[in-house]
Amino acid sequence: MLKSKTFVKKTRSGGVMKVVREHYLRDDIWCGSEVCTECKQESTVLQKDACMESSLCSYPHYLVPDTNVVLHQIDILEDPVICNVIILQTVLQEVRHRSAPVYKRLKDIIHEKEKHFYTFTNEHHRDTFIEREPGESANDRNDRAIRVAVKWYSQHLKTFESDTDGLKVVLLTNDQGNKQKAQDNGLLVYKCEEYVKSLIANPELVDRLALSSDDKSEITSSKVLFPEHFPLSRIQTGIKSGSFLQGTFRASRDNYLEATVFVQGEGEDSTEVLIQGLQNLNRAVHQDVVAVQLLPRSEWVAPSSVVLQDEGTGKDDEDQLRTAAAEAARKPTGKVVGVIKRNWRPFCGMLNVSQIKESTRHLFTPADRRIPRIRIETRQASTLAGQRIMVAIDGWPKDSRYPNGHFVRSLGGAGEKETEEEVLLLEHDVPHQAFSQAVLSFLPKMPWAITPEDMMKREDLRPLTVCSVDPPGCTDIDDALHCRELENGNLEVGVHIADVSHFIRPGNALDKEAANRGTTVYLCGKRIDMVPELLSSNLCSLRSNVDRLAFSCIWEINHKAEILKTRFTKSVINSKASLTYAEAQMRIDDTNKNDDITKSLRGLNKLAKILKRQRIEKGALTLSSLEVRFHMDSETHDPIDLQTKELMETNSMVEEFMLLANISVAQKIYDEFPECALLRKHPAPPPSNYDILIKAAKSKEVEVHTDSAKALADSLDAAKVDGFPYFNTLLRILATRCMMQAVYFCSGMDSDFHHYGLASPIYTHFTSPIRRYADIIVHRLLAVAIGADTTYPDLMDKHKQSALCNNLNYRHKMSQYAQRASVAFHTQLFFKSRGILNEEGFILFVRKNAIIVLIPKFGLEGTVFFDSKDKVSPNIVFEEEGPTLSVEQHKFHIFDKVKVTISLDDSNIQHQKIRMALIEPVIPGVSVPAPDTETPAKKQKLDR
Amino acid sequence: MAGLELLSDQGYRLDGRKATELRKLQARMGVFTQADGSAYLEQGNTKALAVVYGPHEMRGSRSRTLHDRAVINCQYSMATFSTAERKRRPHGDRKSTEMSLHLKQTFEAAVMTQLYPRSQIDIYVKILQSDGGNYSVCVNAATLAVIDAGIPMRDYVCACTVGFVDETPLADLCYAEESGGVSSLALALLPRGGQIALLQMDARLHQDHLETLIEAAMTACKGVSKVLDEVVRQHLQEASVLTGE
Hints:
The complex is a heterodimer of chains A (944) and B (245).
Chain A: E1 6-12, E2 18-24, E3 61-65, H1 67-72, H2 74-78, E4 85-88, H3 89-98, H4 100-111, E5 117-120, H5 138-158, E6 168-172, H6 176-184, E7 188-190, H7 192-198, H8 213-219, H9 232-241, E8 244-251, E9 258-263, E10 271-276, H10 278-281, E11 289-294, H11 315-321, E12 333-341, E13 347-352, E14 361-366, E15 374-377, H12 381-384, E16 387-395, E17 404-413, H13 417-427, H14 437-440, H15 452-456, E18 459-460, E19 466-470, E20 479-485, E21 491-498, H16 500-503, H17 509-517, E22 521-523, E23 526-528, H18 533-539, E24 547-557, E25 563-580, H19 581-589, H20 596-618, E26 628-632, E27 639-644, H21 649-672, E28 678-681, H22 691-699, H23 709-718, H24 727-738, E29 743-746, H25 773-785, H26 798-834, E30 837-846, E31 850-855, E32 860-865, E33 876-879, E34 884-887, E35 890-892, E36 897-905, E37 913-920, H27 937-943
Parallel strand pairs in A: 3-6, 4-5, 6-7, 10-12, 15-17, 18-25, 19-25
Antiparallel strand pairs in A: 1-2, 8-9, 8-11, 9-10, 11-12, 13-14, 13-16, 14-15, 16-17, 20-21, 21-24, 22-23, 24-25, 26-27, 28-29, 30-31, 30-36, 31-32, 33-34, 34-35, 36-37
Helix pairs in contact in A: 3-4, 13-26, 20-21, 21-25, 22-24
Chain B: E1 25-29, E2 37-43, E3 46-57, E4 71-78, H1 94-110, E5 119-129, H2 134-148, E6 158-165, E7 168-171, H3 175-178, E8 183-190, E9 195-200, H4 207-243
Parallel strand pairs in B: 4-5
Antiparallel strand pairs in B: 1-2, 2-3, 3-5, 6-7, 6-8, 8-9
Helix pairs in contact in B: 1-2
């Protein structure tokens, strides 16, 4: 079968080293076309009637893009219109070397069946392999290889001309020289632009064309605006010698002329370098990896506190920055000399339609203020105006004020709920597409039933009185509880967790998708599932009165809540009731009820109280943050009422047992796998984090000790001010802000396991496998530890696990941001329908020119500014000690009670925000008169 | 730079082979007349020369003499010009001592040593050019040399290296694959009976994969044995023509 011919490839790398590799040429590589009868292929990819209607090519044809076309026009290739494309191995390899993200996207396209992309391994085909000729550069050789392959294809397909109407192969290239040579060889060749413009049915594709380098020159003035970037080799030597620093570029949110570069040092000593001014920023975009050069010490500046938005003028803005700063406030300042790695992604935002009506070039303003405006070319500006669109950056030449980009797709009208939700998800990098067929194919077949094999390995716990307690409306129930008295007088408590790892097997597409998503994201009125709905709301959800597979953690506990025995087992349960927190609470309180479920709940509740006390004695913190719930209109899904979440005894009951299960499991998997247990830690915050808390408490003459978690918890408990019942809650909210983020990590890669907030030496997440991927891994580890399942290689690889943890932490953080953004958006919708409201609030922070007010009723935070552009600013004095702010005669302290009006400021459609203005205390010239508090009767009706 | 893609989506390896395909194997027996047996073997770009002396009386220290069987003495070496960098390779460095020992163990399992008590068989192998799979090439070359010397063996000993990439076992690794972070395994097999003469692996591999990997190695070894058998028959035919039998 193998007719091989040995060729020798010689390459020289680094010093002078001869590398000799074999290169086998084959005659069993098929063309992949449906029409071909000569090739003995089992399955074909390319269709017989390749229909892309083009005015240039009226016959059916296959496309062969060259490397540069793939690299720059990947957006075009991704479009569903473009299909039947041959990707040559030469192209694929070159793309792989030059851009990893494009390579990944290209591979995704190739895997999509409907796209009919075929990879032709031309380098190993006997007729299409060519050797590099003396004096020929690698690029020229590759171009020639592409031409040879195209030639081969056209001749190959010609032999079947009788049964097709002239199927042809079209080469797409943007390189003039290459095109000329191809034409000389008698090949069909077009420039990418020419071809895309000729597509009859799809004129909108033209907008997605990336600008190629020879077009760019015409749209910009010839004036050079930016200094040239240094070549990579020079940057590398510079970094090595220490004259340049490498870091991540972080643009400032408030000032487009300012940025910091975060330079990761050895261990702890990371530094930040300030960059100021357009020239020094030198075309770096947020999140790029850049090289910076420090300016001489005499040119160092302090970060300016002005808020500047790019209005296009530029010149006077730069002058505003030059404020004389005290020597001490100056920071290391530098300039960007080169970009090591661009981190461009498609950005969401809106189009600023050009003043000139006929113009096809417009500026695009991204939703993220840290991203500069992007110049794009489009013919559909009028339809795109008022819509949220996505745009990708193509490049930023040194003579252009803005980067050049192209339109990717439209998300829908701005301000519409679906659109805004989409923007929110995209900007927070939350994967939210529908699950692919490949993923769904790994779901169990319905109707699903528990098989006898399943039963063999599992304990039958169906007779137990198990019940679940969750928030109202919850469909993904991942935990259930039971409690019963044993014959020896002790109690048996069981926590039963949905056995998701039974359904999601390691390594398949479903598992990979879940690992990538990392967590379910809960937005207001919407849930972005981590696993398909069949699992999340049905098979895995521990609903009442159906048999479900579970992973159980069962303790024997005495009446003093001391754990005598712990055991883990896979099981089958049948929940007797799915209760809400309120229902469970009612059952416990109702003395007339004495059924099994109620008894079980009472037992649990009693134990939970003891457990909680013990935990608090050990120094666990009870912190507070205000969470709000929206009451949604059932038809329009608009928020009609806001309510802060209420906490009941049963909430803490469930929480207590979940904590207990998590800690028990963490201990078990760590004992079994000290190198690769997935755990969760919460580092203790550095003492300086508490400064604000201590100062705030001092202003009310309360002392807070922060030496340890225990001391902090005790002093928070003791903190009370007469006549101010809300003080304690406010203090706890402040304390929450001082904390660090809890993170997942792999036990083999770290030595500090302590969970500060829970005061536990070890902790993990076990109890919510439906909505968190970390729990699935923990389930697998535990299953291996008790011999209920087999291990697999990646589970035991601490580096792979550590990489997984990084992704989970990132997704977790992003999902929280997305949730907050969603709440903010709904709050805006709510206030939009409300008009103006008057509310009471407390001052949470005092700033230089503003106070930040918390409205407990809505859990809403807002800023009241005392200086605004259009008004004469009042006399403001800020004192660092305190901190206090004096406005005219009135002095604001932290925790003061104020009255404010709340309204929606929609002057900027991309960044709508809640505006607050002061009513009480009355300060002439600053506070506003209380508006009509009576909301129209029509709206009151809606409330009910 | 991104590392090398060892196995493409289309199922081709760096040099164009499919996962289970071996490199081109060429061999010649009886290359020297002074030695009792000799063979030259090329497996792709790895080239080895094997020479066998014996069985003969014990030389050197007589204390190593075994009363019931022959002693097998193996020596492995690499030519200075065998790799991309020219390097003097003194005898007795750790790597070649280990390799010699492995060869010795392999052939003790295959050669019918009990037929020659109190005697010694010397096997010398030199790598002329190295491109991965040195051990297996040495074993294959030495097998041919032993056969050329007319020493009875239970069966051919065939060896092959296999690696594990993307859940797929790759047969007969070349140097680029071996150094590309593949966990590789070397296996010497007596193909007819399916006995394993030597199994060597020092990379990390999950237990679940071991079986598939050994399976692939055995298939590869059987492929090698077919080629070797052909070479021996060819040689025999040529020899018989020369001697006029």
